[in-house]
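Fold it.
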Amino acid sequence: MGVYVPGSTLIHRTPPSVKFVALLLFIVLITALPTRPVHTIAAAASVGVLYAVAQIPFRTAVRQVAPILPFMVFIGAFLWWQNGFDSMLVTVFGLMAALMAATLFTLTTTIEALMEALETSMAPLQRIGVPVDTVSLAIALTIRQIPVLLGTANESLDARKARGANLSLLAFGTPLVIRSVRHAQLTGEALMARGAVD
């Protein structure tokens, strides 16, 4: 997430605020309504159609979703054991549909456009003392950090394999934490240099 694919499709041209509200509504509905596997499978397939409408390259879409697949397999196996096969399919495909929708949002929306939409939507809150600029910046930075952390995790996995410690959690977790903290420090220093001390 956090990667932008330029384009002029209908989904690209849709205002970020509209897409954001639609995303939140979709996540609420996909969480509350489905009771059968066909419901969430259809929802995931519908998001896939939107990827085609937005002309997102297949490899780009797969790269955004692939890092979470091992976790989904683990969750799926646990849910199958606990609640049965149908319940597992409902939950797993619901989560995948929500993830795909959120990823589509970031693939078709620039950080700048998102910040502008957030600032415009939250402008009335400035009257009661809400720091709108800071809130929108925090949201934008959060979205941007997701692909950075995924990249750091992949680099740590590659380094662990190169050292022959494929099963060592310490060999993976230590460099991941150190690199993540270092990146956070650099981000903070960059913000302070631009006057965003708060």
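The longest helix spans residues 132-162.
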